Amino acid sequence: MIFLNIQRITKKYIMEVIIQPTREAAALLTAKIIAAEVRKNPSTVLGLATGATVEPVYSNLIEMHHKEGLDFSLCKSFNLDEYVGLSGDHPGSYRYFMNSHLFDHINIDKRNTHVPNGMASDIEAECLQYEEAIWGAGGISLQLVGIGMDGHIGFNEPMSSMQSRTRVKQLNPVTIRQNAGYFGGPDKMPRRAITMGVGTILDSERCLMLATGAAKAEILAEAVEGPFCARVTASALQWHRRAIVIVDEACASHLKNREYYDWSFNHEPHWAAFRN
Ligand code: GLP
Hints:
The protein is built from nine helices and ten strands. It is globular. It has about 280 residues and is of the alpha/beta class. Strands 1-10-9-6-2-3-5 form a seven-stranded parallel beta sheet, with helices on both faces. It has a three-stranded antiparallel beta sheet with strand order 4-8-7. The mean pLDDT is about 95. The protein has helices spanning about 1-10, 25-40, 55-70, 95-100, 125-135, 175-180, 200, 215-225, 260-265; strands spanning about 15-20, 45-50, 75-80, 80-85, 115, 140-145, 165-170, 190-195, 205-210, 240-250. The N and C termini lie far apart (about 40 Å). α2 crosses α3. The site of 2-amino-2-deoxy-6-O-phosphono-alpha-D-glucopyranose has 14 residues, from α6.
């Protein structure tokens, strides 16, 4: 019996890297993996991310909803993070991003979509309740993440504990510069955010990272092939039980083991349905 359990656990533990020719192809593959999860388990719990990188993932999912009847009516979702001090109707907030880029265009019940409340009067209680809500929903089945220029996932800035849970983080100046465009300049950017912790993300059943573009090639290679370290919190995916990293050619340029990654994607039976 113990032997069987060990077999089941070890079978699942794997990190895979998939390189796609273009940003569009990488986003489409990411959307297909999410869609397959929703089709397999209609009441799945999705972990969702924001940022320019994932926008085309959401437009693909919207198209699949309209053209193929991809049904989100029973899904639940939890977003990674939200800025402190922004309400959901602020165009820079992640609630606003999610509504306008996904939720308003699919048949998900908005009451089942969760984004941390950046306006909560008791932020600590909000963080705790967010963790409890994830647990209450049975945990996240598939977590989508991007990567920041400083290697963060969610808003887990460098030197976040790899065991951290949902909490408030002070944003890195690198992040403030990266995201300032959404606010009309760094001076207008919030300085703090509520974010799922690295430990929260590590608890998800599967974690799907999407990274595209040459600007992230170096930090992506550090996260995937560098040491597991709190300086680059995306490296935590190396510790995840079932991580899938999808990149485009431009973002893959610093990876050393790409022959193996390509070989695995082209030969592993579980990817057969996803190869063109
Ligand atoms: C923000 C989010 C991250 C996201 C990152 C990348 O910092 N908190 O979750 O991965 O942006 O954004 P972009 O895709 O715009 O580069």
